[in-house]
Design a protein that fits this description.
- The radius of gyration is 17 Å and the shape is globular.
- The protein has a four-stranded mixed beta sheet with strand order 2-1-3-4.
- The protein has 227 residues and is mainly alpha-helical.
- The chain is built from eleven helices and four strands; from the N terminus they run E-H-E-H-E-E-H-H-H-H-H-H-H-H-H.
- The chain folds into two domains: 71 residues, 3-Layer(aba) Sandwich (Glutaredoxin), CATH 3.40.30.10; 127 residues.
- The protein starts with a strand and ends in a 13-residue tail after the last helix.
- Strand 3 and strand 4 form a beta hairpin.
């Protein structure tokens, strides 16, 4: 074991960022998935309920996913996922692009998160999640799902997803080799594939799987089993 502990939710894109990045670094970390209704463990670790929380080998902890990615890169520089792979200006441009899409993307993936057992498989967790959606978006997950077609078309246009998919089909990874941009893109956007009736560009689907394989991660981990 590397001495790293990751407290996470399977359904959370922010947590998936860390799972992918730790896998890309080939670090054998301690995966500690929490129940969606577990408020006590984060408080015991010194944080509110926001996940992921990473506990480093020296006992220090953090819970901001982007800051944690950068700290991981600093603590474990090989293989490099940012320095020498992505230029500083390109990294900042990507972060700005991702921030512009955040509100729309969050609304789109909200209805699919109950597909994970930690939410949809537990009545109390599902009730809590639905309440949180109403507080955050002013709509239930069911109502958000009804708006998914127009929402995805907006995201596709604003994010230029089809153009991005064509580029990634040529380069395989955003910068030609695995980087933190690939980690964030895959963690944040792959849940779109679970939206009923929405057609994610096929080249993006292949890309998500390519990144997951490079990181030794399973994008379907934590999903409810269907028969």
């Amino acid at each position: 074991m590397s001495g790293i502990a990751l407290y996470h939710h399977w359904s959370s894109p922010a947590c998936a960022r860390l799972r992918l990045a730790l896998g890309a670094k080939e670090l054998d970390y301690d995966s500690r998935p929490l129940a969606y209704t577990d408020f006590g463990t984060p408080l015991d670790l010194g944080f509110d309920r926001k996940l992921p929380i990473v506990e480093w080998p020296d006992g220090s902890r953090g819970n901001d996913s982007l800051a944690l990615l950068l700290e991981l890169e600093h603590r474990y520089p090989a293989p490099a996922l940012l320095e020498g792979v992505v230029a500083a200006a390109e990294w900042q441009a990507f972060l700005d692009w991702r921030a512009r899409l955040e509100p729309l993307l969050a609304r789109l993936i909200a209805p699919v998160r109950p597909g994970f057992a930690e939410i949809g498989g537990e009545p109390d967790a599902l009730a809590l999640y639905k309440e949180e959606c109403v507080q955050r978006f002013g709509m239930s997950p069911e109502a958000l799902s009804n708006d998914r077609y127009d929402g995805f078309l907006q995201l596709e246009r604003l994010g230029r997803l089809r153009e991005l998919a064509r580029q990634l089909a040529k380069t395989r990874f955003y910068a030609g080799r695995l980087s933190l941009i690939d980690v964030i893109l895959t963690a944040d956007f792959n849940l779109l594939r679970l939206l009923d009736g929405v057609t994610v560009p096929l080249d993006l689907m292949y890309y998500f799987q390519r990144v997951a394989e490079a990181c030794g991660a399973d994008l379907d981990a934590g999903l409810q089993q269907t028969t």
